[in-house]
Specification:
Strand order of the largest sheet: 2-5-1-6-7
Order of helices and strands: EHEEEEHHEHEEE
Largest sheet: 5 strands, mixed
Strand content: 25-35%
Low-confidence stretches: 148-160
Mean pLDDT: 83
Number of strands: 9
Number of helices: 4
Shape: flat
């Protein structure tokens, strides 16, 4: 799963259903759900990183399987819209998610970045739909980065 751009001042959002398991492979999770993941890996798969010179190297092996279904990174920055799109796909998989929850850690993971002062609203419908699935909602906020801007003309370079 590619990460959305973290360019300062660019608004974006994304929602994902994440399922992790030490007992099941990503293929088994996919078979139970009947959905194709946007990213999947299995316990024992290699993890790659980069050394100081930028060369790709094997950095270890996965300790758990992962199955992730994400909304597209580009497009509408409205987080509620991304959640609604994801819920439209997974609402009908409530029984399968309940079955998987005995052997897996499952959550809804969202990323949100706002230009200037940003925010979003999760309406009662979205909150109720999430509650019916009994899933945790994890939210990563990517605040605006301020580079060389201030009212006094002094340089500011910090992340809030």
């Amino acid at each position: 799963m590619s990460k959305p751009s973290l360019i300062p001042g660019v608004k974006w959002s994304r929602a994902s259903l994440r399922i992790f398991s030490e007992a099941l492979t990503s293929s088994q999770i996919e078979a139970i759900l009947g959905l194709e993941a946007t990213q999947a890996y299995s316990k024992g798969d290699p993890i790659y990183g980069r050394n100081k010179s930028g060369k790709k190297i094997e950095a270890g092996v996965r300790k758990k399987s992962g199955w992730i279904l994400s909304t597209p990174a580009g497009g509408d920055p409205n987080l509620a819209l991304h959640l609604r799109r994801l819920m439209d796909v997974i609402d009908v998989k409530a029984e399968e998610l309940k079955q998987l929850s005995t052997k897996c850690k499952i959550d809804i993971f969202c990323g949100y970045a706002a230009a200037d002062q940003g925010g979003f609203t999760l309406d009662a419908d979205i909150i109720n739909r999430l509650a019916k699935l009994n899933l945790n909602l994890d939210l990563d906020l990517y605040p605006l980065r301020i580079d060389e801007r201030s009212d006094e003309g002094s340089e500011v370079s910090e992340t809030f």
